[in-house]
Amino acid sequence: MRFAEITGWGKCVPPAVMTNDDLATFLDTSDEWIRTRSGIERRHYSHVTTCEMARVAAEHALAAAGLEADEIELIVFGSTTPDEIIPNTGSKLKNQLGAVKAAAFDLNAACASFLYGLNVAGDMIRAGTVRRALVVGAERASWLMDWTRRESAVLFGDGAGAVVLEASDREAGLVASRLGCVPDTRHTLHMPNWGHGFDRFSDDRIRLSLRFEGREIFRHAVRAMAEACRDVLAAVGVGAADVDLFVPHQANARILTLVAEKLGIPEDRVLVRIQEYGNTSAASIPVALCDALEAGRVRPGALLLTTVFGAGLVWGAGVIRWGDRVVPLGRSAAALPPCDLSALELMRPSIEYYLGPNGRGSEKA
Predict the structure, then answer these.
(1) Separation between Cα atoms, residue 69 and residue 136, nearest integer Å
(2) pLDDT digit string, tens, across residues 209-251
(3) Can you tell me the distance from the alpha carbon of 276 to that of 268, in angstroms, rounded to the nearest whole number?
(4) What's the per-residue H, E or C state across the chain?
(5) Which CATH class is domain 1-364?
(6) Cα separation, 58 vs 362, whole angstroms
(7) Catalytic amino acids?
(8) What pLDDT sits at residue 357?
(9) Distance between CA atoms of 318 and 255, rounded to whole angstroms?
(10) Residue among 257, 215, 248 at smallest CA distance from 229
């Protein structure tokens, strides 16, 4: 039987940091208000495009796997904030990397995009369609922030993560998964004026605005993530006690804690990085995974449990059996260009667009 082993990994986090105290200078909020409700202390905002962050993450993943870009046969680009819709941003990444042999496409399952992409690429490897794939999760969520909606605006950050999958005869990679979508819940996390769902000829001024019903999302997320995790663990024939590291989508610290408690996974085996990055949507899982590897929290043969939840409302869970490689085969010098602006300076045009030059946003979603 053929498996799709993770052999390389990489991340890109932009340098400009927006702290909770920074947000409090123009929003009716505070560090205490944000931390107690989400666990977030800071988030990173990008001065470059989603694809540029993805390129840096991908370069690191390729180096870790000891591969050149022209050895990759498939690129799955998971994002809700692509550089372009037509053509897809995956093809842009392919060209930037020089992955001349790779098929490339975008995948949008919101915050669940990376796990969904891991499923698609893994299935293509198991089917023998390709032998090597690059799966990317990248977001420039700051570009979508409506600063009049405090409850959602404080949550999101930017970043990118990537992994390389290679065909393997040993049981490694994503060995079980379950994906789904909660019926009749699209309205709870929705950007109605993003796409062709609005009349662009009648609206004088189209404002991007994320509609966010936090309580409903919380309720559905905890239930769906916990149930999906139980299902995939049962599919592999293991229990929560066998999980070496739980890597959940970094959406909200309270959600992570409650799901782990429902599963019976102790705190020391739960990976929490939301305090540093906020919710980076599709980038959340691969960035957290890179942090875990850098910190030595993933050992050869480790059993990882991951779960996701996002707009749709989509959900998923997966069991990953890690291979032998926990140290990169090589290193890449890839990096973003310097940013001379602070996060506040970087976001000033967006802030003034929504709030005016002296406005303060306090409306809750």
Answers:
(1) 14
(2) 666 666 778 888 899 999 999 999 999 999 999 999 999 999 9
(3) 18
(4) CCEEEEEEEEEECCCEEEEHHHHCCCECCCHHHHHHHHCCCEEEECCCCHHHHHHHHHHHHHHHHCCCHHHCCEEEEECCCCCCCCCCHHHHHHHHHCCCCCEEEEECCHHHHHHHHHHHHHHHHHCCCCCEEEEEEEEEHHHHCCCCCHHHHCCECEEEEEEEEEEECCCCEEEEEEEEECCCCHHHEECCCCCCCCCCCCCCCCCCCCEECHHHHHHHHHHHHHHHHHHHHHHHCCCHHHCCEEEECCCCHHHHHHHHHHHCCCHHHECCCHHHHCECHHHHHHHHHHHHHHCCCCCCCCEEEEEEEECCCEEEEEEEECCCCCCCCCCCCCCCCCCCCCHHHHHHHHHHHHHCCCCCECCCC
(5) alpha beta
(6) 38
(7) 111, 249, 279
(8) 81
(9) 17
(10) 248
Cα–Cα distance, 289 to 280 (Å, whole number): 13
Measured between its terminal Cα atoms, the distance across the chain in Å is: 49
Task: Report pLDDT digits (tens) over 69-102.
Answer: 999 999 999 999 999 989 999 999 999 999 999 9
Residue (of 278, 240, 273) closest to 259 by Cα position:
240
CA distance 140 to 336: 14
Question: Residue holding tokens 């599709």?
Answer: 282
CB-CB contact of 252 with 274 (8 Å)? yes
Alpha-carbon distances, residue 223 vs 220, 258, 329 (angstroms):
5, 10, 39
Q: How confident is the model at residue 143 (pLDDT cuts 50, 70, 90)?
A: confident
Residues 289-306 have pLDDT tens digits of 999 999 999 999 999 999
